[in-house]
Specification:
Helices cover 57% and strands 9% of the residues. It has 482 residues and is α/β, with parallel strands linked by helices. The chain has an eight-stranded parallel barrel, surrounded by six helices. Helix 7 packs parallel to helix 9, helix 9 packs parallel to helix 10 and helix 16 runs antiparallel to helix 17. The protein is elongated and about 85 Å long.
Length: 482
């Protein structure tokens, strides 16, 4: 009897989902494919995975003056291909969007049911997606108060909603209304196939508090969430959005579903898709408690002082920031490779200093041998994720960009340098950088470059340049530029 009881407990533990799995099923984070510049492109699934997203909100394609959306997934074979790629990468299609209606007036589209049917068919082809997005922006700013136009909007939404309900789907609408206004609108529409595709930006523009508005609207009326504001700063830096309060309300209401990042791009790097969307996805996942994918390369931080580790992470992140990949899966692995390089150097030099007390010659020999091996290991590790030029960028950041600064300075100081001389200067500076990467401190790194700068000066002097005179004239030119 006792044995059977234990077996039942073990079976229950195997069947029961883990806490992480349960949390993932409740909240999932995706990106809008038209905003990451991958509208109906196969590359959207790999990019979403790179960004750490669980899925995408796939768009129906442009509309403009067309009769139907520019929808390549109307073709069953093309849709099947898209689904295979998405499934192979473990990336879900969380919703299908009719974003073309951001700029097209629904009340002026007499074939609105054909547009909806096209969307519903695409949802089926992509594996039974249950939520569609229908923005009402194209209806203008006055449809909520213009009685005649509102009646027309309501009628068309009712028709679309009933068609969606028959197919087991829901259409989420994007409105400029607050909770009270949205509840009134949904009552007028009178269809279970229509809900609110909640958008932070709209609520903020209406002057409402997001958490309070969600609570007033109710979980049953929200089918999905566009978790972003206008472009300006990332979500984590947006003081108008209290994600902790929003999560608390959603937890209390029992809501579950998809969060999609549409905007909230940092305007200082608005075109950097990976940095903007990677940062927002990562932030949302952490606040919502969603599982995050582990980087392939682990951080060798065990047994190290936490403050030292944090300093190294901040130093190393300058390289991934420069590459624009910090908040991506590959970026996290590259970050850890750079951090581990610093840790390895610290270990090698610490071991050298300890051994010096008993055998200085052996200590230096052993140190040189380990530095040699680790130098090539570093390049090999980075080559798994970066192109050769990107590896150069990492090394430049680690050596304070001295190669470029010094090379540019010499070219500016001596405009008459030949191509051969420029190539020689660059070759020595790159050689210096390879040595400086392995130096034990910033002071030692600069000392390495100092030696090579001396070699360059001697070379230029032998070539007949009067460096004192060239430098004096250079200073005068810089003064005149100012």
């Amino acid at each position: 009897m006792k044995k059977n009881y234990l077996m039942l407990i073990m079976a229950a533990l195997l069947i029961a989902p883990s806490l992480a799995e349960a949390q993932e099923a409740r909240y999932r984070v995706g990106v809008c494919d038209w905003m990451i510049l991958k509208r109906q492109k196969l590359g959207e699934f790999q990019l979403a995975k790179t960004l750490g997203a669980d899925g995408v909100e796939l768009d129906m394609g442009g509309l403009g003056q067309r009769v139907l959306f520019d929808n390549k997934l109307r073709d069953a074979g093309e849709a099947a291909h898209f689904k295979r790629v998405a499934d192979s990468l473990g990336v879900a299609v969380g919703a299908v969007a009719m974003s073309g209606l951001y700029a097209q007036d629904l009340t002026q589209r007499d074939n609105y049911m054909d547009l909806a049917a096209d969307c519903f068919d695409t949802m089926d082809r992509m594996g039974g997606v249950k939520v569609a997005f229908l923005p009402l922006g194209g209806c203008g700013n006055n449809w909520t108060t213009d009685r005649e136009k509102r009646i027309k909007v309501v009628k068309r939404l009712h028709d679309i909603g009933e068609a969606a309900k028959k197919r087991g789907l829901v259409v989420g609408i994007d409105t400029p209304l607050d909770a009270k206004g949205n509840k009134k609108l949904l009552k007028e529409v009178g269809s279970k196939g229509i809900a609110i595709f909640y958008k932070f930006q709209n609520v903020l523009e209406a002057g409402a508090d997001i958490a309070k508005d969600i609570k007033a609207l109710g979980a049953a009326n929200i089918c999905a969430i566009h978790a972003s504001n206008t472009d300006g700063v990332w979500l984590q830096n947006d003081k108008a959005i209290d994600m902790q309060a929003i999560k608390q309300v959603l937890d209390q209401t029992g809501w579950k579903g998809w969060f999609f990042v549409e905007r909230s791009r940092d305007t200082t790097m608005v075109r950097n898709v990976k940095m903007n969307y990677g940062a927002n996805v990562r932030y949302l996942k952490r606040v919502l408690g969603c599982p995050e994918s582990e980087p392939a390369v682990k951080l060798d931080s065990a047994g190290r002082d936490p403050q030292y580790v944090e300093t190294i992470i901040q130093r190393s992140q300058k390289a991934t920031d420069q590459l624009g990949i910090t908040y991506t899966e590959e970026g996290q692995s590259v970050l850890n490779i750079v951090c581990n390089k610093y840790f390895k150097l610290n270990d090698i030099y610490a071991e050298r200093d300890s051994l010096k007390k008993t055998d200085k010659k052996l200590a230096e020999a052993q140190c040189d041998s380990k530095l040699y091996r680790s130098h090539f290991d570093f390049d090999a590790d980075l080559s798994m994720y970066l192109k050769p030029q990107e590896i150069e960028t990492v090394k430049d950041v680690m050596t304070f960009n001295v190669v470029k600064v010094t090379y540019d300075a010499h070219c500016d100081m001596i405009p008459s340098l030949t191509n051969e001389e420029k190539q020689q200067i660059m070759a020595w500076l790159i050689e210096a950088r390879e040595l400086a990467v392995d130096a034990e401190s910033s002071k030692k790194k600069h000392e390495v470059f100092g030696k090579y700068k001396g070699r360059i000066n001697n070379y230029l002097t032998r070539r007949g340049y009067d460096l004192a005179k060239e430098r004096e004239q250079w200073y005068e030119r810089m003064k005149s530029r100012k």
